[in-house]
Description:
- By secondary structure, the protein is of the alpha/beta class.
- The protein has 2 domains: 6-188, Rossmann fold, CATH 3.40.50; 197-277, Orthogonal Bundle (N-(1-d-carboxylethyl)-l-norvaline Dehydrogenase, domain 2), CATH 1.10.1040.
- The protein is built from 12 helices and 8 strands.
- The chain has an 8-stranded mixed sheet, with helices on both faces.
- Strand 1 (11-15), helix 1 (19-30) and strand 2 (34-38) form a beta-alpha-beta unit.
- It starts with 10 loop residues before the first strand and ends in a 17-residue tail after the last helix.
- 3-hydroxybutanoyl-coenzyme A binds next to helix 8 and helix 10.
Amino acid sequence: MSAGGIGNIKHVLVIGSGAMGSQIGMVAALAGYRVSVQDIAEDMLTRAKEQLAGRMQANVAKGKTSAEDAEAALGRLAFTTDLDAAAADADFVIEAATERLDIKQQIFERLGRLAPAHAILTTNSSTLGSSKVAEASGRPEQVCNMHFFNPALVMKCVEVVRHERTSDATVETTLELARRFGKEPVLINREIPGFVANRLMGAIQKEALALHSAGIASLEDIDTTAKTALGHPMGPFELMDMVGLDVIQFIAEATYAETGDDADRPHPAIADLVAQGKLGRKTGQGWYNYEK
Ligand code: 3HC
C-alpha cells in the first residue's frame, strides 16, 4: 500500500465530535473538502452541529465569511454515527476520539480494514504517539499524528509527528493538507511525550504552579505577567481552564507514564481541582469562577 498524494484527497473523515473533532471538521469543510464527522453518540453530534452553525453565524455577522460560503461549508459537513460507511470512501482520516489507547487501537484496526488502500490515517492525540496505533491499522507507513490546538478554528499550529515507519509521502501529504486547511504545520521528526507545544506549555505551567504554591504571586498576577511582560494571549492559569484541568492532568499522567520523571507528575493542586469537579471553563469553575 502507499499513501495517496494531496490530489487524491476529496473526502476527509474526522472521528470524534468533541471540541477538537468538530472544529477540525469545520476547518476542513471551510477549506473546500467534503467532510464526515463521526461519533458514537448522537447527542454529541447534535451539539457539535449546533455549535458550528452558531460559530458560522457569528463569522457571517462579523463579515469574516459570506453567508453563501458559510452555508456551502456547512453543506459539505456531514454528521454520522456510521463509521463503516464513512470510512469506505475516506481519503484522509483524522481521529480525535477519546484519549484511550484501547479505543484508538480498535478504531485504527477498523480503519485499516475499511478505508481505501491509499487513505492516510492520522491521530490528533497529544499524548499517544501514532506508533501505538500504526500496527493495528495494517498500514503503518500511512499513519502519523496530526495534532491541532484548541480552539482548532483559530490556532495556526498543527504538529505533524512521524513515527519510525511513517513514509515520506505520508508526511508530505499531511503537511500539505494542513497548509490547505490554512494552518502553519511543523514537523516533529521523532515521537517524544508532549511533542513540542505541550512540552513548552507544560514548562510554563509547572513554573506558574510552583510560583503560586509558594505564595510568590496571585493567580491573577502570574497570568497578567505572562500577558503583559511576555505577550502571551492568555496566562497559564487561564489557559489551563480553557484546555480543561482534566485534560492537563491526563497529559501529565501520560507523560509521567512514559518518562518516569518525577518532574512530570501531575501537580497536586490540579488533582485537587479535578477531584472537586472543577475542570475549568466547561464546568463553570477551575482556577477561576466563570459562573458569575
Ligand atoms: N472556538 C472558536 N473560535 C474561538 C473560540 C473558540 N472556543 N474562542 C475564541 N474564538 C475566536 C473568536 O471568535 C475570535 O474570532 P475573530 O478574530 O474572527 O473575531 C478570535 O478567536 C479571537 O477571540 P477573542 O477576540 O474573543 O479573544 P482573544 O483575542 O483572547 O482570543 C484565543 C482567544 C484565540 C483563544 C486566544 O486567547 C489564544 O490564542 N489563547 C491561547 C490558546 C492556546 O494556547 N491554545 C493551545 C492550547 S494547548 C492545546 O490545545 C494542545 C492540546 O493537546 C491540549
